[in-house]
Amino acid sequence: MADAPTFAELFDPDFLAALQPFSLHARRVARDGRPAEQASRDRGFGLEFADFKSYVPGDDLRAIDWNIYRRLGRLFVRVFEERQDLPVYLLVDRSRSMYLEDPPRIGAGLRAALALASIALGQHDSVGLFSFSGVLNIDAKAASGKHRLVSFAERLAALDERDRTDLTGILNELSGHRLRRGFLVVISDFFDPAGAEEIARALALCRHRLLLVQLVRKTDADPTLHPDLHGDIRLLDCESGDAVDLTVTPATLARYRESYREFNERLTRFATDYDAGLVRIDADEDVLDQLGVLFESGSLVV
Amino acid sequence: MSFANLPLLGVLGGIAGIAALLFLLQLLRIRHVEVAVPTTIFWRAAAREAPVRVLRGVFRHPLAYLLVLAICTLLWLAFAGPEAHDDRTSAYRVLFLDGSAHTAAGGEFDEAADKLKSDLAGLPDGAREVIWGGARNLKLLKAGEDRLLLDHRLAGLAPEAAPSALNEQLRLLSLPGVAPESLEIVIYGRAPADRVVLEGLPAGMRVSRAIDYATSGSNRGVASLGVSSAASGRWDRLDLLVRIGGTPDAAPVEGIAVHVNGQRLDDDRLEWLAADVATVRDLPADGSSAEVRIEAGDELALDDAARLTLPVRRAIRVALAGDLDPAIAHAIEADPGLEVVTEDPSIVIRPRGVAAFGDLPALEFAPAADQQTAFEIAYTGDDSAELALRSSIAALGLDQVDAAGIAAEARRPVGVQLRHADLAGISVWDELLAHYNFTGSRSFPLFVSRTARWLAGEPAWHPYLAAGKPLPAATAWSLATTVDPALDALGADYVLGAAGTVTSGGRAATSGGRAAAVALSSDAVTARSAGTPLAVSQAGGGVAATGIVTWLILAALLLLGVEWYLYQRGMVP
Fold first, then answer.
1. Are residues A106 and A225 in the same domain?
2. Which of B540 and B322 is assigned the larger pLDDT?
3. Which residues contact B555 (CB under 8 A, 6 or more apart)?
4. Taking each helix axis from N to C terminus, what angle separates B326-334 and B443-456, rounded to the nearest 10 degrees?
5. Quick one: A43 and A166 in the same domain?
6. Chain A: which residues have CB within 8 Å of chain B?
């Protein structure tokens, strides 16, 4: 198993500075948030005029539109759109498969998580951190404030390797938490033994806006690039320990590619059907460049 | 079918061993390399559809087993070196490379040699041999010898100015016990085979030609070269006879150069007797070397010139002693080969009892009372009396004497008696000359002439010396009874092998006491005769072993390709 990045490696000032141009923009956040910069469905005090309503006792007298009263002789008050925060939930896979190979996928996953957290905290959105493998861990409840980025990075760096992946169970469990609706970012390799179909079904039950960050590497799509995957081999699943004896032949390679392609197509189809975001990040390449695809115009609208 | 590298049982045993080894291999298990992967979920389906390749699993698949077995068997057979022989090619082979003048034109010899080497590669070493057919037949490659030796042994060999010895070789091979019963003789070159020889071959012997010589280029050459006594009657002169031969389409000869001892004679000395026959008259009979050359050479150069050593002819010095019948002197004077001298004679003619020149061979005349038979001959040498009698009677011309008439007139039998002596001599009744009119007989000058030559022991000379032809015996003109021992050592026909100055037994063969220059003078060569048409051999050994090996390896490669194709398709594990 390869080592995950340390805090020093993760909390790279240059990396964080490069994220400054990026922002998250929610179309409309759920009610009952804390004041922030995202458009919400709540009406109240704010800067953006939203509508008029008949005055009822108790309304703020400062909001009465006296011009309308002069013309119509009735009292109306101006209501404004309230700006609130977007809760961002980062669900990070810490199963054993994320720590296999060199460099491990967890490195790219943590960087992606830190990047999104940095962007969200920078615009006063709240960020919560959940890690999972076979069980769900609440590593940081949703909170806002730029100053939290350091502690958030520390929590990310503190994540260690756990056992097998149970993404579908975790998603189901997470759905049971009464979290304020927000932006759920699933950072994983999605190698759940339940299969892509079950993953998609579990994701569909989530009430949040979704961004799937799939951590991949080139050998996933083309096993022939793997130096050991040839001839007569015994494949050992790093999580379950299951062994698969195999003779790598063109036929088996073709069958593997077909399975892997179907898996990815299912994830893509889910993202398309549910208007979710999907980005595949190669663990061997620079994370920032790949993540930048989401922020082509500088802002990711969720 | 046979195998060059292994016996048949070895081949079959090897195949069985391979099959058994493959069977044992299937009992072994493969030790897999363990590879940890993030997940195996994508590999499981592939593993289910394409079972793991273990050796046992490979051979569970009948097609895969057969493929592997077939590939291994083909490679094993290729290693064994199979040799396919049909009925014809199973015979023992004698490859006869013609090194005679017949194959000397252009690049025909090289072509024949190359064809021989090519065919040799397809023949088993133990069932063939190579014979060189030049002036002498040589065995270039014995049965069982590696063919690589042939290149070394062929180095330096080139067609010789000699007639073909093919027919002699065929006769030799057809002798009982000399060659296997089933024998095929393949001729590489133009050496003509004689029809009579071919008809006399045993039933199991076949003769074929490796190259089809359907056509040949035009050629002119000296077909005959010989000498005869000069028509002018001069004893010490000879006439040279030249005959030009050639192919029917050859152009007439325009110029012939005649050299005697290297000096060219004037062209007007050459007298054409016919379109292709010419003579040069009155050449000196002094042992000179005469060469005739066609000035415009052609592709076959070996027959464009011929040489001959001219014989030596000198008058026999005869001494006459005592009171002799004048007819004797007249007979000697009439013979240009005899010369009456008083000093340093070679022979003497005298009445018995005269002591002059007592140490010389003599023709004596004795009273009939002193001699039992009419002719008494004292001979030297080792011949038996019977052989000496037979040769002497002919040499002395006694068979021309009218013995019956003389006997009737003398009323007593006329006979011949021989005795061995240290000095040759002939004694004749004096009465034959004085009373029985022997001097009046037409045979008397002949008797005197031949007797003188017999007594003088004049060596034989040869009217021609042609390569490949038996050396001619003494001529009627020479009348000599002695034969050059160097040329007649075995007492049989002596055949000179090749043109040029020949040697025999390390000594220079001589003719008339001089080294023998020999002409090729062969009509068969000059006319480029193909002899009796022969079938053209298909190839040296039918299907060559190397060809079969090549095909076997190609078949194995093809099967490997099939296996790869099936493997790609996932049809074999």
1. yes
2. B322
3. B74
4. 70
5. no
6. 97, 100-101, 105, 189, 191, 193, 195, 226, 228-229, 231-240, 242-247, 249-253, 255-256, 259-260, 263
Contacts of B573 in chain A (CB under 8 A): 247, 249
Answer yes or no: do A236 and B37 touch at CB < 8 A: yes
In a shared domain, residues A234 and A163? yes
Provide the residue ranges of all domains of chain B, joining segments of one domain with +.
2-84+548-568, 92-216+528-542, 220-312+460-526, 316-456
The 10s digit of each residue's pLDDT in B123-169 is 888 888 999 998 888 889 998 888 888 888 888 888 988 888 888 88
- B440-498 pLDDT, tens digit per residue, is 878 888 888 888 888 887 766 777 778 877 766 544 333 333 444 444 444 556 677 77
Q: What are phi and psi of B242, to 5 degrees?
A: -125, 130
Q: Which helix (H) or strand (E) holds B173?
A: helix B166-173
Interface ipTM above 0.95? no
Phi, psi of B490 (to 5 degrees): -95, 0
pLDDT in tens, A255-280: 999 999 999 999 999 999 999 999 99
Please check whether residues A211 and A99 belong to one and the same domain.
yes
- Identify the residue among A163, A225, A245 best suited for mutation to test binding to B, counting B beta carbons within 10 A and taking the highest: A245
With cut-offs at 50, 70 and 90, classify the pLDDT of residue B377: confident
Tell me what pLDDT residue B71 has. Answer: 92
Phi/psi of residue B505, nearest 5 degrees: 60, 35
CATH 3.30.70.1230 fits B92-216+528-542, yes or no: no
Q: At what angle do helices B8-25 and B62-80 cross, to 10 degrees?
A: 150
State whether A72 and A102 are in the same domain: no
Inter-chain CB proximity B35 and A253 less than 8 Å = no
Q: Has residue A1 been placed in a domain? A: no
Residue A281 lies in a domain: yes
Note whether residue A52 is domain-resident: yes
Main-chain dihedrals φ then ψ at residue A104, nearest 5 degrees:
-70, 155
CA A89 to chain B, closest CA, distance in angstroms equals 25
Query: Does the residue A2 lie in any domain?
Result: no
CATH number of the structural domain spanning residue A176: 3.40.50.410
Read off the DSSP letter of residue B487.
T
The DSSP-derived string for B266-304 is PGGGEEESSSSEEEEEEEE-BS-EEEEEESS--S--TTS
What is the number of domains present in chain A? 2
| Same structural domain, A80 and A194 | no
A50 shares its domain with A113: no
* End position of a domain, from candidates A55, A84, A113: A84
- For residues A278 and B452, what is the distance between their CA atoms, to the nearest angstrom? 137
Nearest-CA distance A167 → chain B (Å): 14
DSSP assigned state of B67: H
Inter-residue contact B109 to B189 (CB < 8 Å)? yes
Nearest residue to B308 (alpha-carbon basis) of B499, B71, B41: B499
Compute how many other C-beta atoms are within 10 angstroms of the C-beta atom of residue B72. 19
Instruction: Tell whether A57 and A159 lie within a shared domain.
Output: no
Nearest residue of chain B to residue A235 (CA atoms): B35
- Residue B106's identity, in one-letter code, is G
Domain of A51, in residue numbers: 39-84
Return the sign of the alpha-carbon dihedral for residues A194, A197, A198, A204: positive
